[in-house]
């Protein structure tokens, strides 16, 4: 009988998490089966180091940080993860590294942690399971649904033969969209610089000349990395709240759809009772939505449930910890909140029970803080946006506004339900990241210092970029009539992980072979175990996919402890499905 073979394409945190779950489930599903008599092979395909992968590899600038506290980063399960397999606890990043839990560790340290986790996961595999790393890219997969799969690698004439293939590819490069393509073509024709969406640590920033204006489209985490590499990375330094330039920095003009940076990470710890979540958007509501004969619309049917869930988390905390800022008892408010239907009825209830508007949750205002706001000049806007960032920093580090942290917990709960629902549109993931996955507070204080030093300037909301007169031109509704011109443009965001525009030939070949995509271009997978679905909705028996390019995307491959870890639940389900499949195949071969 031949040994079973599992090929995992992508050896970063997601691939490592899958191996950890295979090792955890092996005592139940491997020991004593036909599979255990012969063992099986795991082939890891990734040009980057196992454990860290591309994004978290140790070989990158030590100036780049994680955007989570070290105590909020774990690769190990706990009892809050809903899964069939056993819990296998392990250290958080701060416990493993022996550092202060409130530290924002650099990515080199996180890469070392992930390498260690990978080594521990491999060591925990049963006897007879061998792991092989192939530092190459996978190009395509062939093979029938009922037979062994062939995984073709670059610079290798013969394919890897696999009983099962799991794609855990992480963030992918993408072809330019139509707008970016036009701007890139204009730049090539006119000798300009256009840097496309990319993982910033991999971008060649040498073309951005000292002192020259650079338009930056994107105000999220990719922008923060760009900001760091073009300032401290070029020899600048901070003296308290003052930035001392090296003279090698360009002048960054940054804008985006919202026109503001992502909200700061919250800078205090949770105390007291957590909101009892889920309350208004849980398994029962997901089941009802999935059972609707005509399907459902996210904005019409799902978003109101999300809003009510987040509001419940917010007001539960406010009434529990700050009752002096409310009128009436929580029990009375909760009963009326549960019965309220529609936005207007909920708003009226909240207005009557929460006197200060600053204590009310307004997701629309949070999402678009510059909506309808106008400034007479860019100079006035610089001062106004600095004030906005300073207020955000103050609030996100003040525990008297701890309902904000309750909303964060609500967002995590909602994310878990959306995965069960079969995913969410891309704008939801952007909204989640903007509220819940922003930069460390110190990064925004650096941003303010750079603004005061004139190295960083704000363009505004709904930033529009055109190419005319041999330059790029940026305008914004925030400062009517004003514009900024530059010979360089940076698209400061990660590429969109769509099947149609992925540079990865593996995904394009899968799509050509019949794999389904969502209307937003994500690879469709079975929410139960990650099997890739075809265009008729059939799950492929031998192909699985996990990660941000699928409609089962999660907030990340790792998470903060005791928050349910949706990625861990997915890893567990896929690991169990793989072990059961390999065990059944071994049993048939032995019969």
From TrEMBL:
Residues 535-567 are annotated as: Disordered. Residues 7-171 form the FAD-dependent urate hydroxylase HpyO/Asp monooxygenase CreE-like FAD/NAD(P)-binding domain. It comes from the Bacteria. Pfam families: NAD_binding_9. Coiled coil: none annotated. It comes from Streptomyces aquilus. This is FAD/NAD(P)-binding protein.
